[in-house]
Amino acid sequence: MENPKPANSATKTQTARAPRFLPRLERRHEPLLSRRAFLRRQFLFALFALAIVFGSLGIGVLGYHFSEGLSWLDALVNASMILFGMGPVSELHTNAGKWFASFYAMFSGVAFITIVGVVFAPVFHRFLHRFHLSGDDK
User: Fold this and answer.
1) Which of 20, 49, 86, 108 is the most exposed place for a label (fewest CB within 10 A)?
2) Which domain holds residue 121?
3) 132 inside domain
């Protein structure tokens, strides 16, 4: 026999969840966080964004070093310039390097947008939460 679904399972909605190490954003009916708690949250989100930056740079450095044969420093310069939208520094000579640079450039665009979103998410959320709370006073 099959287990019947609970009666209230159809009414529950799935929401996107932040990673467990990031603090939870306050809900609609919760009070606004204190400035100190907000700054702590902002610091944790900034650390998470920094981890994304270093992870993305690591991927780029390894890719440029092994696919194009660049020195570690030249690979770092190329990866950081691509990651932050400035463009490549060194000319690419191998097909593997050109393939990697193409995919790394697409990855970097998404990573940059993600990094900016992670940094500004608490600020934007606080603004909307404050605006929502001020609307409840009417």
Assistant:
1) 20
2) 35-136
3) yes
